[in-house]
Design a protein that fits this description.
Number of helices of chain A: 9
Number of strands of chain A: 4
CATH class of the largest domain in chain A: Mainly Alpha
Strand order of the largest sheet of chain A: 2-1-3-4
Order of helices and strands of chain A: EHEHEEHHHHHHH
Strand content of chain A: 5-15%
Number of domains of chain A: 2
Oligomer: homodimer
Helix content of chain A: 40-55%
Chain lengths: ~240, ~240
Amino acid sequence: MSYELFYWPDIQGRGEFVRLALEDAGADYDDVARSDKGMAHMMTILESKTATRPPFAPPFLRHGRRTIAQVANILLYLGPRLGLAPRGQADRQFAHQLQLTVTDLVAEAHDTHHPVAGGLYYEDQKPEAKRRAKDFRENRMPKYLGYFERVLAANPKGDAWLVGADASYADLSLFQVVEGLRYAFPKAMRNREKHWPLVVALHDRVAERPRIAAYLPSPRRLPFSEEGIFRRYGELDG
Amino acid sequence: MSYELFYWPDIQGRGEFVRLALEDAGADYDDVARSDKGMAHMMTILESKTATRPPFAPPFLRHGRRTIAQVANILLYLGPRLGLAPRGQADRQFAHQLQLTVTDLVAEAHDTHHPVAGGLYYEDQKPEAKRRAKDFRENRMPKYLGYFERVLAANPKGDAWLVGADASYADLSLFQVVEGLRYAFPKAMRNREKHWPLVVALHDRVAERPRIAAYLPSPRRLPFSEEGIFRRYGELDG
């Protein structure tokens, strides 16, 4: 039974964390809103007044009769099915915990360019964005990446992956975080990356996984842009 | 085996969502950082460079050999153990999805008074806070509460609880959201609450649960204040 992923068709955004897992596993999936009439289909589901278990926002996944929203929740469901979750319960719970920490980081990265309101343009909140981005670059980004570095260093099964001895969806997500931060804050990342060698090595390890290496240059991988979560505005890079 | 909850000792904050579940279940738990030397104990765990599975931030829970962080992840673990999770897998996944939506709302409520940086004082970001709070009151709060209203209305088991026919931790969390929003935005909530009658009725239903009714006036329930997530600043209430 194939998976249906619903997400905004023109950006990587939060949908990319799910896409990376599906791609790495070679799963059979349909990126619905990017196909003909797919966007209308997605909006019908989002705006339904009667659907039980409605999603609050994209991305959401359909699999058989299930509709599942929230990135970390989708990955909690997909992980074991795709062979991308650790085996034991405690390890699974920790992988999920790390994914929720990625979720927090992603929301903060978004708010660097939208600190006032997601419904306003960036141009309407530039002074506020400049202040928030400075705090993000100097305090939050190092705190988060330093945390993941510490998790890798303390993994009793070695420092190659975040949880246990094998890759999980959390590693794919951390790869995407590094990609996104390098896109949005090239200068800040160039200056600071050396402090997180294990995170950078994990990023490179993910990029070399055969299905990821095939996916990244494919048309299925949308480019970063100034419409997504990670945006490159020179004035926010210090 | 009793639970150990670790959270900042002077605020309800994010810890309160866990406390409410433990209290409603009549669980045996220790609110560690509020006891003698508890704060030092919590900081030792947070600052350990060698702990495997370290928490990124409070709250976190210790239960036997497990240390679990992130509110929604803690409740995912506690729910079934406290009799506060739905029975079926799909219902459990949906309760967790709703909890993650509460998590998003809580982060946005926090950012109404800290839109620039959590490390700065409110006084250092008042103009930005005023703009963000306006958007929160007029757009985000109604979007979230309207969503929960819709979930209640569409529940095939009746509109008393969010998932299935019985209360779950997600209901306790929605109660706390209403409490917090009423504290922070009394005027905005007074003007708008009538649009979400099922959410308000759920709030009242939770408040009447015997153990919650006993907990709320007890010294274990910390008061709301201008140190927590939900803060009352008149200028942010429109």
